[in-house]
Model the fold of this input.
Amino acid sequence: MDIVFDLETAPIKFGEYMVRDDETGEMKDIGALNPITGRIIALGWMSCEAQHIFFDVDEKKILERFWFSISEAAKESKTFLRFVGFNIKKFDLHFLLVRTLHHNVRIAGFNSRLVIDLREALTFGQTYMKKGTLQDYAKLIGVDGKYHDLKASDMPALWKAGKYEDVVSYLKRDIEITQELYFRCKDTGIITDIR
Done:
């Protein structure tokens, strides 16, 4: 069974890992980009029409609920699940597994060999120096874009400000866009069901 997966992150300590942006010259917080200095603030997956979103101020509860749902879905399908996402090999899965390790949460229904990274598939495995965000690909295939034109980099500030509904809505929309892109990749033969 294929599941489309995504997560949102924020720094554990805001303002502790600041760097100067080369383009704008402004200082920006990069704590959310590393699972050692960041944490998961929202996590979700979708299979066809069923969407499962996990949100809590307690990261361990998010992870426990997520992995329980994955375990139940794997039992129901009687197999490991194939995780599908955009840039999940370089970011999302690494972040998920390190934060799971930190909280000592047991995983189930996951096999690291059953992963489809749409960004990797669309760049033929050569993601370095390749352009194209999820939003770019959504526009390319004619799918409506992001929730309120927000970006992933906006999520930490929204979470810190207590705008949890916006974080959850943004995550839901990203999962829907990713699923549309996945279906298009399957329809065009870019991705096949051969494992």
